[in-house]
Amino acid sequence: MNIFEALRESHDRQRTYADALIQTSGDTPERAEAYKRLKSELQAHETAEERHFYIPLMEFDNGVDLSRHAISEHHEMDEMMETLDETEMSSPSWLATAKKLSEKVHHHLKEEEQKFFQMAGKLLSDKQKETLAGQYLKEFDEQLDQAS
Question: Global pTM?
Answer without folding.
Answer: 0.95
